[in-house]
């Protein structure tokens, strides 16, 4: 009697459960990162939009759907004036910052300027000084009658004030000096990658230096110039501290500064603030989409051929002393003089044009290290350290998933993280307010809400920094480790993270500085127990006096310089450490 039963030894081997394998490694990682990014970024944005369509304040029972906030906001001329002022500040700052950044990048890449590495480090320092810090410094320098520059000018000439810091021009200069290093760094790569043969051909055919620059160099740089200009315009237009400090006496308000007033003074108007934030966010996201499109299509402006010819360096010749003098003056005005102004102002009891030795005091520093003020210093260090650590880890993982991942939706993860960088800080603060007021776990009013806000605000920057370190690394190392049986966790721990360690070190220090300087979201979300150095400086300017604020900002500047020194030391140490993976 025959049997149709198949012998177990002869049975066809079962196919491995690839779905289960994926769910336990890269699939789970990708899903977890998407969920976390949604929680950090999309949830506050959705809460912000919901608040703009609701009739009562967050945490209040009842309420109903309404469009009244939109009709009252968009139907009046006041909001459009605020929007115009925001665009004026953003576009003006972008024009000045792009001009400065382009000149600096050209000198660094295309001229025979000596000690380029030193200049690179010096000229990027203003990027790490917060706009709030620079605003206070220029108030110390340019306040009418009592500002240090105006006081000296008046005593020498008797001609009154040289300039007033309370002007739109001063706002644009402060923001442009802070953001021009961003343009500078953004243009170094495109200038280096440009094929110099086209410029040489133009010069050979009789095109002068200026004509070659205008007809050849600028068109090739156009996408990078526009992209960096758009990002600078977004960052300047969303800034809250500079227009609020310098524009109120002029009755010059922007959307972020008006949102702050709606939330800070009775009667508060959280629904109107949410509506203005939603409209402002929509414009910011549209600008970010344009920025991404310019980056995506930048390849169309690249030269076609084999390996591009390295750019030739132009000899500065007799202009070298003049150029170096201008660079020194720019560095002094953009970074050194403002920090010295904070130091001098923090040692005075009050602003006065008549400074004598008896005017100096350490009272502001004694107050800074007392009671709740000391708590602000500790809070700043704890928040910055914790946020930088989490941001660096998440940035590395998201960059890995977006660059090395196999998912068809990996671009959405990268876009979602970049969206967080595009959300204005004060708008993110409103979204967090609507999300966590009345939240069951009691997050609102604690350090946790600031921790979450900082992570959401700077996640895109962390992803970009870590991603730039990952791109040059060949995936062959990971493929070899995978063939030898290493899982995703082992490959990350033993291959990827050690190789991008220098980039992660840079990312950690940068995230530490960015979170230390943050004020736009913090000013909406802080409580008496969660003040930071930036909040203390802001409160001092509003209530206690500028001199105390100068002391807080100088303390912050010292921490920033220590962090930059730490980054330099870490990078040198990591560069000198033998890499056992490669060797």
UniProtKB/TrEMBL annotation:
Residues 83-291, 377-571 form the ABC transmembrane type-1 domain. InterPro entries: MetI-like (IPR000515), MetI-like_sf (IPR035906). It is found in: Cell inner membrane; Cell membrane. The keyword Transcription regulation does not apply. One of its GO terms (biological process) is transmembrane transport. The chain crosses the membrane at residues 28-49, 82-108, 120-143, 163-185, 220-242, 272-291, 322-348, 381-403, 415-435, 441-460, 495-514, 550-571. GO terms for cellular component: plasma membrane. Keywords: Cell inner membrane, Cell membrane, Membrane, Transmembrane, Transmembrane helix, Transport. It is a multi-pass membrane protein. SUPFAM superfamilies: MetI-like. Belongs to the binding-protein-dependent transport system permease family. PANTHER family: INNER MEMBRANE ABC TRANSPORTER PERMEASE PROTEIN YDCV. This is Iron(III) transport system permease protein. It comes from Pollutimonas bauzanensis. The lineage of its organism: Bacteria, Pseudomonadati, Pseudomonadota, Betaproteobacteria, Burkholderiales.
